[in-house]
Structure formats: C-alpha cells, structure tokens
Design goal:
262 residues; mainly beta; seven-stranded mixed sheet
C-alpha cells in the first residue's frame, strides 16, 4: 500500500503574533562552551520564556535534558522523571523561538528517523537555512537519553567522559511531541548543527534527547528562521574559558558528540 505524505501550506491565522514579528532563534550560552565544561546555569527560565515559547537546551550542571513547549519548560533527569521547571531555575544553554510554523506535513504510515530526515531534507528550500521543527502524534517507538548531574562545583569532568554516564529510556506506542531544530554547519560553536530533537510524552511524565524513533501517525510543522541572537554569559567561567581549544570538531551531529553507538 502506498503511503500518504501530505504537504499543506498554512498561515495559522489563529496565532496571536503580528505578521511583522521576525522569525528568529534566540540562543543563551555558547554550545562549544557547554561541551567544554561551562555547565553552570546563568540564565533564568522566566527570562528565557520571554524570548520564545518553544525550544531545547541543557539544565543546570547538565542535569538531564531541557525542553520548552507551549511556553513551559520541562526537565527530564537521568532517572527518567520529567517535571516542569520554575521561572527562577537557571540554565547554561538553550535555543528558543516563538514557534509560528508555515508548513505542515501529515505522515500516516510508519517511518524511521532516517526516512523522516530524508523527507525533511527534501522540503527545505535553503539547505543553509535554519528551521524550527515540531512533530506531534503517535510514535511506534522512541529512544531517548538524559545525563546525570555533574559535581556540585568545579572542577567539572570533561563532557566527553561524562557523557558515558547517560541513561537511556524506551517508549513504545506512545503519544507525544518532538521539539527541535535543523541548523546549518556555520552555526557550530555557538549552536549545534544538524537535526537535534528532544522528546516529551503526552502525559508530560517522560522525555529526553531523542536518540531514535519510529513515527506511525504524526503531524510535522516547520518554521523557517531568518536570523539568530546570542546571549553571552557574564560569568567567571566564561571569561576565563579558552575557546581556541575546540571540542570534537570532527563530529557531524549531536549524536556523534555524545558518541552514542549503542
């Protein structure tokens, strides 16, 4: 049986945003700094929500994974629990935007993560563009992960070493949301290029960084982004950090950074 892959252009008139509001990504912290050991939170969730209602990031001390969806911030910890974060909680890194999709795709058959990425690639008119992506509906399978917190104070372990402590979770026949981005290679260092998704189950009890998935009946919404801003930390650790040291420069995506060959 042939699959149904339907593309619908829509302007989403019910959204309360003005047409003149720019489609922009707002980044707090520097990704390469996070991977190099800048784990301390400096930017409050409450302030982050003024920059966007949709996004992903890292909790303080990289204690799990961060997801922002519908104006709420969720943390999934290494024990598999997911909870909403208060406005005074501070994060070391996050990417957010006010999500206003302009393209909607309905996928009614079961496809793998790799097939999803191939289809998305075919839809992006600008291969060097930035795109916010929301996938909602039924998933046959989702594998996610989360890191345990590092030590309470510096010196912190190297991220590459610490990432081996990550915990994995599996969900089957689950409804939920994937929140994420596809960013171009020139945004590496400040951000993380390629596809990057975090998962949130419909009951808000499970989540984490999406490692693998099998979609069965979902809607995919896309928003092309026009530019991005970066909030630089004003912390002692940031001021003393050596950005010339680089980090895992041969990695092609976030999963290679984590070295998840499981």
């Amino acid at each position: 049986m042939k699959y149904l892959f339907m593309l619908v252009m829509t302007c989403y008139p019910s959204f309360a945003y003005s047409q003149s509001e720019p489609h922009e990504l707002h980044t707090v912290g520097i990704a390469i700094g996070l991977l190099g050991g800048l784990y301390d939170g400096f930017y409050p969730i409450g302030e982050l929500k003024t920059k966007g209602d949709f996004g992903i990031g890292a909790p303080d001390k990289i204690n799990g994974e961060l997801l922002i969806f519908n104006g709420k911030a969720y943390q999934t910890t290494s024990d598999g629990k997911t909870s909403e974060l208060p406005d005074n909680y501070k994060v070391p890194f996050a990417m957010v935007n006010n999500f206003r999709p302009t393209i909607r795709i309905r996928i009614n058959e079961t496809i793998s993560k790799q097939e999803l990425y191939r289809r998305l690639d075919s839809l992006f008119p600008n291969q060097n563009g930035m795109y916010a992506i929301h996938i909602s509906g039924k998933f046959s399978y989702v594998k996610s992960r989360a890191l345990p917190p590092v030590a309470t104070q510096p010196p912190y372990p190297d991220f590459k070493t610490w990432s081996k402590q990550q915990q994995f979770f599996e969900f089957r026949q689950v409804s939920g949301d994937l929140v994420g981005y596809r960013l171009p290679a020139y945004m590496d260092n400040t951000n993380i290029s390629g596809y990057h998704f975090h998962f949130l189950s419909a009951d808000k009890k499970g989540g984490g960084h999406m490692v693998d998935s099998e979609l069965s009946n979902v809607i995919v919404e896309l928003e092309p982004l026009e530019g991005y801003t970066v909030k630089i930390p004003d912390t002692k650790g940031f001021r003393q950090f050596n950005f010339q040291q680089g980090y895992n420069t041969e990695a092609k995506n976030i999963d290679e950074i984590y070295e998840t060959k499981h």
